[in-house]
Design brief:
It comes from Lysobacter silvisoli. With 278 residues, the protein is an alpha/beta fold. The chain has ten helices and eight strands. The chain folds into two domains: 1-30; 40-260, Alpha/Beta hydrolase fold, catalytic domain (Rossmann fold). It has an eight-stranded mixed beta sheet, with helices on both faces. Mean pLDDT is 87; it is low at 272-278.
Length: 278
C-alpha cells in the first residue's frame, strides 16, 4: 500500500503537471500559425483594392499609389496591420514616388493562408512585378514589425537600394521565446523569420526605427539584429513610442522622409550570392 501511495503521490506531483505541460506544448505547436498571423483582423472587400498580383493560382491584392511616378517604394506591413491606412502617410511623405503595398496571404483581400515560405515567395514575386513596371529604377523597401522579417529576406535576394526597418527583430522564434520563457517555443516555431541570417551580407543603406516602449519586440532582439549588419545602420530611437504608436510620432516621419526622400538615388545593393537561392 505504501508503494502504491508513493507512486500515486509521485504522479500527482510530477506526472499530472508534465501531462499538462506537454498538452500545452502540443497545442501551441499544432496551432502556432493561428497564434502568429492575425490576418482575419485586416480583412476587407476586394473592391477596396486597386492592385492584383497573380501567384500560384491565388490573387494577392493591395494598392499602387502614384504608380506612374518613378523610384518605387515597397511596403510590407506588420502583423494585424491594416496597410491601407498607411497609404495616406506614405503618399504625403513621398509625393513624387510610386508606392506599392501588398497584403499578405489571408490578409486584406488576398487569397490563401500565410506561412513564412509563402510570404517570402510572394514578396519576391511582388518585387519582380514592380521591377518590371519600373525597369532600371532603384527600389526601396520598408518593413514594419513582421514585415521587417519579410523585407529582410527580400533585401537578401534582390537588389534593394535602401531598406527601412520599423520595430525589427533578430528572429521571430527568439522573440517568441522571450515572451514564453517557460516553454520551448524557440524550438517549436516553424516560421522563424531569421532576419539576422538574411541581413548578414546586405550592403545597402539601412534605417532602423525603434520604439523606446516596445512591449512586443524586446529591445535586446533589436540590439542583436543591429550587430548582424555588414555595415552599421542608421538608428533612430523614439523614446516615448510603443510598438503600435511609433508611426504616429513626428520624429518617425522626419526620419523616414530624410532617409528615403532624397533625390540622390542610391545604387541598388546586390543580393548576396550565398543567399541568392529562392
Amino acid at each position: 500500500m505504501a508503494k502504491i501511495l508513493s507512486r500515486a503521490a509521485w504522479l500527482a506531483v510530477f506526472g499530472v503537471p508534465a501531462l499538462v505541460y506537454g498538452g500545452i506544448c502540443s497545442y501551441l505547436y499544432a496551432k502556432q500559425r493561428d497564434l502568429i498571423y492575425f490576418g482575419q483582423q485586416t480583412r476587407l472587400s476586394a473592391d477596396a483594392t486597386d492592385f492584383v498580383l497573380q501567384r500560384e493560382g491565388l490573387r494577392l491584392r493591395g494598392w499602387a499609389v502614384q504608380p506612374q511616378a518613378p523610384r518605387p517604394i515597397l511596403y510590407f506591413g506588420g502583423n494585424a496591420e491594416r496597410i491601407e491606412l498607411r497609404r495616406e502617410q506614405l503618399q504625403r511623405l513621398f509625393p513624387d514616388r510610386s508606392i506599392y503595398l501588398l497584403a499578405y496571404r489571408g490578409y486584406g483581400a488576398s487569397d490563401g493562408t500565410p506561412s513564412e515560405a509563402a510570404l517570402f515567395g510572394d514578396a519576391l514575386a511582388f518585387y519582380d512585378h514592380v521591377r518590371e513596371r519600373h525597369p532600371g529604377q532603384p527600389i526601396d523597401v520598408i518593413g514594419c514589425s513582421l514585415g521587417s522579417g519579410v523585407a529582410s529576406h527580400v533585401a537578401s535576394q534582390r537588389p534593394v537600394a535602401r531598406l527601412a526597418l520599423i520595430t525589427p527583430f533578430d528572429s521571430l522564434a527568439a522573440v517568441a521565446q522571450s515572451h514564453y520563457p517557460l516553454l520551448p517555443v524557440g524550438w517549436m516555431v516553424q516560421d522563424r523569420f531569421d532576419s539576422v541570417r538574411w541581413l548578414a551580407r546586405y550592403q545597402g543603406e539601412v534605417l532602423v526605427l525603434r520604439a523606446g516602449r516596445d512591449q512586443v519586440v524586446p529591445p535586446s532582439h533589436t540590439d542583436r539584429l543591429l550587430t548582424a549588419f555588414a555595415k552599421p545602420p542608421r538608428v533612430v530611437a523614439l523614446a516615448d513610442a510603443d510598438h503600435g504608436s511609433i508611426g504616429a510620432a513626428p520624429e518617425f516621419e522626419q526620419a523616414l522622409r530624410t532617409f528615403l526622400g532624397g533625390d540622390d538615388a542610391a545604387p541598388p545593393a546586390k543580393a548576396s550570392a550565398v543567399l541568392s537561392q529562392r
